[in-house]
Amino acid sequence: MKRRQFVAAGLALSALPAWAAPERFARGLLWRVTKKGIATGHVYGTIHVPDPRLAELPPPVRSAFDGARSLMVEFLPDAYTKERFAEAAMFQDRQTLEQTIGAEDFERALRELRPLGLSREFVNKLKPWGVLLNLRAAQAAPEPALDAQLLDLARARRVPLHPMEGVEEQIFTFDELAMASQVALLRHSLAHREEILALAQRTVDAYLARDLAAIWRLRESYVARHPEIAEHQAALTKRVVLDRSVVMAFRMQRQLRLGGSFVALGALHLYGEQGVLALLDADGYRATRIY
């Protein structure tokens, strides 16, 4: 089976929060992180989508990054991890996507994924979460996402690179989500495609305004309009955002302690009392917004 342009889209934009969060760390994408006896580091909230308006890093971000001695990101893709992620997103037995979601939704998924050039046979072996990740990729612009820009710059400067997660951890986040939730979220995404794309556009607008609280509110409002997915979305949000924020806040400290580190992760992980900035604060770090 030929695997053409399968996109392991990563984790960050898949979660739509479904609860009210406190207004802490509500605005700002770039934060100076300090602790007594440790050199200054920076934490930058990215958005994992290509968009023409994100073609260049903002000057304050580029300035902070140019002075960094290391770059830490959520995940470092390579040939093996891409292949492993694609493999994990597929049924390994006789089960098929069409059997799982029904013929009508399967045909709809085929139409939406057509821009990726995936064969019917390939799509039919994808698990629902594999389809969900690729639905966004099918509508992506050609510009490189912010994460890719940072990786390119770091490699050009030969800055040491460090991941916060391995590929098996990323796979586990989705693969252990209950199949009922995978199916419900995929069917909803297929049935409300235009509305979700419009939400994604408004999310980028809020990101460009550096308004983390607005990003959360957009998603809360969306789930409130579609209560049938609230339970499933809450389960996904816990796995993709909240649980991972705890792990990230712990693991980034090994780089922050060395000083001069630049940490880039999805902006949703910054916001609120359960975000990485609040968790770092609880461990004695001070986060100061600079952009």
Give me a quick take on this structure.
The protein is an alpha/beta fold and 291 residues long. It has helices at 59-66, 79-88, 97-101, 103-113, 120-124, 128-137, 146-157, 167-175, 179-191, 193-208, 212-225, 230-256, 276-282; strands at 30-35, 38-46, 70-73, 161-163, 261-266, 286-289. A 6-stranded mixed beta sheet has the order 4-3-5-2-1-6, with helices on both faces.
If you had to describe this structure to a student in words, what would you say it looks like?
- With 291 residues, this protein is of the alpha/beta class.
- The protein has one domain.
- 51% of the residues lie in helices and 11% in strands.
- It has 13 helices and six strands.
- It has helices at 59-66, 79-88, 97-101, 103-113, 120-124, 128-137, 146-157, 167-175, 179-191, 193-208, 212-225, 230-256, 276-282; strands at 30-35, 38-46, 70-73, 161-163, 261-266, 286-289.
- The protein has a six-stranded mixed β-sheet with strand order 4-3-5-2-1-6, with helices on both faces.
- A hairpin with a 2-residue loop joins strand 1 (30-35) and strand 2.
- Helix 2 runs parallel beside helix 8 and helix 12 (230-256) packs across helix 13.
- The protein is globular.
- The model is unreliable at 1-22 (pLDDT under 50).
